[in-house]
Every structure is written in structure tokens, then in C-alpha cells.
């Protein structure tokens, strides 16, 4: 058998250079900036939409919580179920309009664990073509049959339901609320109607919507999930739904059962973030306004959230644009396949309540030359 390193070196060599990913060390800073290699940049590719990652209230809450330990020390089902979970879960349930919430160690773990626990062989999962990798991974792990409908295409989703619904026991439709790489919104009213007509369940991942673009009828969606690690500036994921859903997941979600609980500091920061968000709705509105102003200035489609893609096509062009912006002091990452479809490499701009109008004006000016006339 060839040595492991030889096999891996050969596989890496087969990867074209413009698809190769590298990790860079970076330090997000207050005021919508980040430091890389000792240089400070204007940061337009993070997920700190509400500008809470350096908020003193979150930091102090996390520091105080550290007095009850740096880590949880065990899974939630053993002795890791710190008192901080309860208040956070009550607040998340309330925010979603659902009866309960259950917090996992990440958004990825929440989604994968929930889908795999609920669905199985003989069941059908219908996923939006652009649904996040964690939903697809959960579907594959579940053993259910997975079919994809064209992005936000309700006609296609309905055609699949007409054709296949009766051949399966349970059916789950999965999608994102705000699509992470495109910034557009799923037609949730239409999906709720579809799920009622065809007797399916509906699960929506709200990783990028919370408090920037809130869906008013979250409790008409069976499973409303999201992350504590983006707008809420902490770490963790959550699933909101009925009391029976929560109880069932505690019995069956393997990513909850077989993984250590979150540190108290993470729970405290997330809970404080939810309180701040409730008291300061201007934060989400500010991030959205920045994104809309950027899109308008560059003649791009109006965004539904704080994410604006500039689709450039080839990987090399996206990398070139990202490098040029970096030279001018702007951090904007090039997003390439397999994160986005082939030929749709892009710059993904994200906006934050922490950005000033001047910062947004600057990135508009620097980006103009990359927009096709
Ligand atoms: C980031 C993201 C996740 C994963 O959440 P983490 O807390 O980072 O694991 C899940 N779904 C979507 C749509 C995301 O963008």
C-alpha cells in the first residue's frame, strides 16, 4: 500500500491551483475591521452583521461566566448542562415564537443532527439546490431519499411533491431563510402553503437572517434553526419547535448526545446578544441599509439581507479581484466552487452595523472597476 503522505500529495497536486484553499491568520477588530499579517483592513466578509462581536456587554457576560469554568467538561446529557442553557433556550424559543429551543455546539451540529434524527430510509427530503452543506450532509447521513429543487422554484418543488410524495412515508422540505452566498430570501409563505397542501414538514435554516431580516411567521415552520455564531457573535446552534421535537432530539440527535456541551462563556455571550438585539433593532436595519446602498451604487440586485454577491464567473477572476481589493485595504473573500456552482465564483460582500458610511463609500469606490458595465 502506498504511504499516506504520497497518496495525499498526489491528490493535492490534482487540485487546480485556483481551487486550492489556504488558511490565513486573522484577527477581527472592532469597527468593522480586521488585522491580517500585522496590517489593518476594512472587513467586508465576516458574519458579524449586528456589530456585536466586540460589544462590551457580551464580553463582560462571557468573562463573568468564565468564573464557573472555562469548559463544560461533559456532554449535556451527563453533567455539561450548565444553568446558562435554560435562559438562553427560553429566549430563543420566545424569539422564534415556538414552544421550545434546543442548543447544540454549532449550527452545523444542530442541522446535521436534527435531520439525521428525524428522517430515515423510506422517507423523502426535498432540498433547495442552494441549501447549505450542513443540510445536505444531514440528509445524506439520515439515509432518506434526497431530491433537490431548483433554487427558490416553487413550481419545481410542487412537481416533485406531486410525483413522489405518495411513495414515501414522511417528507421534509429543507431550505435557508436568507441564502448564505446569494443574500436572497426563500419564499417562506409559499413553502408553508406547499407543506400544508402536500402534508410534509418544513425546516428552515436562519443562519443569516436573524434580526436583519426577520420572518414574522416563524412558528408556521415546523423546525426553525440557526446559529449563535454569526449575528449573535458567540458560538453554537439552535433548533426551535414543539416540546415533542425537543424531547425527541434529546433522545436521538447524535451530534447533541455524543459531543461536549458549550462553555458557559459562549452561552452567556449568546444570551446577552439576544437581549441586546431585542433592545436595539436599529442594528439589523443599519446592516441592511449599508448592503442596499452598496448594491444600488453598483447597479446590483437589491439584497434581502446584509449579503451582496458580485458574481465574476471564473475562479481566477474572483481571486484577482479579491487580491486587488486587499491591496486597497478591503478584505473581501473570493468564494469558489464547491461552495458555489461552477462558473459562479464571486466576491461575497457582507455588511455590519459596525461599519460607518465612510467605510461603505470606500468599498463602493474600490469595487466599481470589477462590475461589468
Ligand atoms: C454558517 C452556517 C451554518 C453553520 O453554523 P455554525 O454555527 O457556523 O456551525 C449553518 N447553516 C448556514 C446556512 C450557515 O451559513
How does this model look, in words?
There is one protein chain. It is built from 13 helices and 14 strands. It starts with a helix and ends in a 6-residue tail after the last helix. The chain has about 375 residues and is of the alpha/beta class. The chain is about 40% helix and about 20% strand. The protein has a seven-stranded mixed beta sheet, with helices on both faces. The mean pLDDT is about 95. Helix 3 (about 85-95) packs parallel to helix 10 (about 265-280), helix 4 packs parallel to helix 5 and helix 11 (about 280-295) runs parallel beside helix 13. It is globular and about 55 Å long. The structure holds pyridoxal-5'-phosphate (PLP).
Tell me briefly what this model is:
With 373 residues, the protein is an alpha/beta fold. The chain contains 13 helices and 14 strands.
Observed structural traits:
14 strands; single chain; 373 residues; seven-stranded mixed sheet; globular; binds pyridoxal-5'-phosphate
Q: Hey, roughly how much beta strand do the residues contain?
A: 15-25%
Structural class: alpha/beta
Identify the bound ligands. pyridoxal-5'-phosphate
Low-confidence stretches: none
The number of helical elements comes to 13
How is the largest sheet built, in terms of strand order? 4-10-9-8-7-5-6
Average pLDDT metric: 96
Determine Rg (CA atoms, Å).
Answer: 21 Å
Listing every helix as H and every strand as E from the N terminus to the C terminus, the arrangement reads HEEEHHEHEHEHEHEEEHHHHEHEEEH
Note the main sheet. Answer: 7 strands, mixed
Shape: globular
Report the count of strand segments: 14
